[in-house]
Design a protein that fits this description.
7-stranded antiparallel β-sheet, alpha+beta, Beta-Lactamase, DUF1457, disordered C terminus
Length: about 250
Amino acid sequence: MANAPYQAATDDGSFGMLGKGGKDKGIVSMTERERMRRMAPLRQVEAYWHGLCAADEVPMRSQIDPRGMEDALENAFLMERIAPSMAKIRVAGTHLNDIMGMQIAGMPLSCLIAPPDRERFGEAVKRLFADPAIVRLDLAAEGGFGKPDLEAHMILLPLRSDFGDQTRALGALISHGRIGRTPRRFTLRHIEVTAALSGTVVTPAPTQPATTDAPVMRKEPTADGPRTAAPTSASASGDVKSHLRLVISND
């Protein structure tokens, strides 16, 4: 069939159908398709969180059911505020552990961030709980011997405890590139803070670097929720300042 369309590649790695005369018909960028595929876990976790939101309240920690975001569990994590600008990971997906080269449940979330950027990261965490707000971060891993280029994206979503206070959060992290030698820590390239219930951007996106590594999550029943990932033990570490007080909660 002389006039039948045929598939052809383009210079930018796209492909599509070319019709009579070689005109493009529905060219699809493979780079964009790949990006959408990589970002899927973040979109799934955020969509699940929005589905639990009430008109004027963020969801409760006890509402979180891993079955609602099953395809994103390896990238997801749950955390608890232990100071105004600091939170510890309570349950973490396997991808976060792979990035850090260890099980990081029980460690501060800031262990994923390079020391020079931890203060800025702490300000974003403070807004997450206080406003409450949704925090989106673009990250780049610190380089070095055996540490190839690695970029990552993180989202943090506020939750309420069973007592109604905003001291819990749901998050997800994805990365693109080889992990290489661990641990990998990230610099902050961009931060966006959005009002959790109104969707208004309240903080412009900054640009800077920071280094960090990731947590892990397994689907097992726990006492404080329907079904959620069971935290794996890990030695507590991080940059907790002396004036901060660890708050232990059984919820």
